[in-house]
Amino acid sequence: MSQRPLIIRYLIEPQCPWCYIMYKNIVKAAENVGIPIVFKWEPFVCMHMPDGVKMIDHMREKWGEEAVTKCKYFCLNS
After folding, report:
1. For the segment 46-75, what is each residue's pLDDT rounded down to a tens digit?
2. Is the pTM of the predicted complex or chain greater than 0.85?
3. Tens digits of per-residue pLDDT, 6-19?
4. Alpha carbon distance 75, 56 (integer Å)
5. Residues 27, 30, 36, 41, CA torsion sign
6. Among 22, 74, 12, CA closest to 43
7. CA distances (Å), 67 to each of 37, 51, 55, 63, in order?
8. Cβ atoms < 10 Å from Cβ of 20
9. DSSP class per residue in 42-71
10. What is the spatial distance between Cα 78 and Cα 70, in angstroms, rounded to a whole number?
11. CB-based contact 11:44 (threshold 8 Å)
12. Which of 32, 10, 34 minimizes the C-alpha distance to 21?
């Protein structure tokens, strides 16, 4: 009996090398333990904020609360 794949919703900044490195690490880890995975890609654009402006506030204003919820793990106390 084949194992159901683990579905991973992956927020990714396409230009960020760390996002690619993490993707490769997840794939390698899944292969090492024999877990099939499927990625659901959710790209976003990382923005450079002027001094004094918190990214989470900018995201909330520009894209709404849903964007903040999706990115909450990537907004480290912004």
Report:
1. 666 667 777 777 777 777 787 777 666 554
2. no
3. 999 888 887 778 88
4. 7
5. negative
6. 12
7. 24, 22, 11, 6
8. 13
9. EE----PPPTT--HHHHHHHHH-HHHHHHH
10. 14
11. yes
12. 10
